[in-house]
Write a structure and sequence with these properties.
With 81 residues, this protein is an alpha+beta fold. 21% of the residues lie in helices and 17% in strands. The strands form two sheets. The chain has a two-stranded parallel ribbon with strand order 1-2. The protein has a two-stranded antiparallel ribbon with strand order 3-4. It is globular.
Length: 81
């Protein structure tokens, strides 16, 4: 069984970014993985039930993604939610 690599769906040309657009990544390595059937597209925001488009969101100032995963920090959207 070949290894699978999760790649953000928006980087693969899927229009799932907060603004409903894609941000296609051009990469020879990525193209090779796609040809080999190794790439699995995933949008974590859509998988969590968020809509597209949606308000932009950021991690609290001075915090990190690790803090969010650990439950010590939050992510707020432009509406403060």
């Amino acid at each position: 069984m070949k290894a699978k690599i999760l790649v953000s769906a928006c980087l693969l040309g899927q229009p799932v970014r907060y603004n409903g657009r894609a941000l296609t990544l051009e990469s020879e390595l990525l193209e090779s993985w796609k040809t080999q059937g190794m790439v699995v597209p995933l949008c974590p925001e859509v998988a969590a039930g968020l809509a597209t488009p949606r308000p932009p969101a950021e991690i609290e100032p001075e915090e990190s993604a690790e803090s969010v995963v650990g439950g010590q920090a939050r992510i707020f959207d432009a509406n403060g939610e």
